Amino acid sequence: MKFILPTIGSRGDVQPYIALASALQEAEHEAIVATHPCMRTLVESYQVNFAPIGPDIDIGMEAAASQERFPNFITGMIRVMRFSFDVLEKAHEDTIALCEGVDAVIVSHSAAGSIEADKLRLPKISVTLHPQAITAFDPSDPLFKRIVGSLAGWGMSYFMSRPLDRIRRRLGVPPMGPEGITSRLLNLIPVSPHVIEPDPRWESRHRMTGYWFSGPAADWSPPQELATFLEDGEPPVVINLGAMALDGRGMQETALLTIEALRQAGLRAIIQGWDAVLSGQKLPDQILHAGSLPHTYLLPKAAGFVHHGGFGSTAAAFQAGVPTVVIPHIIDQYIWGQKVFELGVGPKPIPRKKLTASGLASALNQVVKEQEMRNNAAQLGKTIRSETGLENAVRLIHQYLC
Q: pLDDT above 70 covers what percent of the chain?
């Protein structure tokens, strides 16, 4: 079969679909990841077919810039979602042209591919990265809980369904049904049941598979500077705020604050991002400023991980079995930061606007020195590494489509 997997967003929004496309190719299917033109090198480095859709832009970077301009959580979320819907609409012509001739569409969590699959009446399988968004109605629930659930559903409709339906009307596609962007056939959830338990009240079409991970690209090898740094001392903490480390107003402050926190904690570290701030700057010997590196290589060698709480970074930390400090900036990052804390694999998340050098130093000392937290992270990592998320996903796709 021939599949297309459209998605938009940052690297974390693309990586799961690269992994799934690679697994489909290994199962002797043809799979194409369709996303922003700037992602070509990333996708093709995994020997996965790539097709560009829409404007050449990284929504993750736009989200970071929006957060800088509009630090209020709700305002920032609305602006990011509006921008994303605009990109989806601009990608429509490219996406629908690619969908012609395929056997099925894998609709991403960003809704990419949903309109096109419906317009061409193609089979579609959807992906949900956030199980918390799946409603589970139970008439036996107390009235208050049902009211809260109804309000949450209204909020989801207001922020996502209604804008997408406006796009669908403009493109001559009927409005979405009560299932929203999820497929009536099969909705895949690439999350471990040991991180979030499946709700027994979900419809049977919602299937949790376990995470989808890719290893390093086939031709990748660690830079000598990195290999030497890792060999020359205790395991470092890794600091990577992803697109939230976009260089701009406020980012220099965060970078310098982080360096001061590392000095106070007395830790070695690998810092990724903040290139304009840190490139060419003399850093302490215990800090290495590095570029993009595969999580699957780096994190198992780390003593701890500081990140923004994106889906991909959180999953990678879980898999590596490394305790985590989450510094959430926007939307779902707060949810994953709270989940890290609830699982006992990291301290309470520190929202960016509350971040201080002493607070970050204290959190770093927790992840490095608290043995219970380290044991919890190691055990969770062992469990997740034993799961077969990609195999489960391909099996389900075969079961429902082939």
A: 85
pTM over 0.70: yes
Report how far residue 105's alpha carbon sits from residue 114's, in angstroms, rounded to the nearest whole number.
Answer: 8
How far apart are alpha carbons 162 and 183 in whole angstroms? 17
Q: What is the C-alpha separation between 206 and 193, in angstroms, rounded?
A: 13
d(C-alpha 137, C-alpha 156), whole Å: 15
Please give the helix or strand (H or E) that residue 298 lies within, else none.
Answer: helix 295-298
Q: Are 329 and 355 in contact (CB under 8 A)?
A: no
Tokens matching residue 177: 């049904």
Judge contact between 241 and 308, C-beta under 8 A: yes
For 179, counting Cβ atoms within 10 Å of its Cβ (0-12 exposed, 13-18 middle, 19+ buried), the class is middle
DSSP for residue 383: H
Walk across the sheet containing 237-240 and list its strands. 287-290, 269-272, 237-240, 304-307, 324-326
φ, ψ (nearest 5 deg) of residue 306: -110, 120
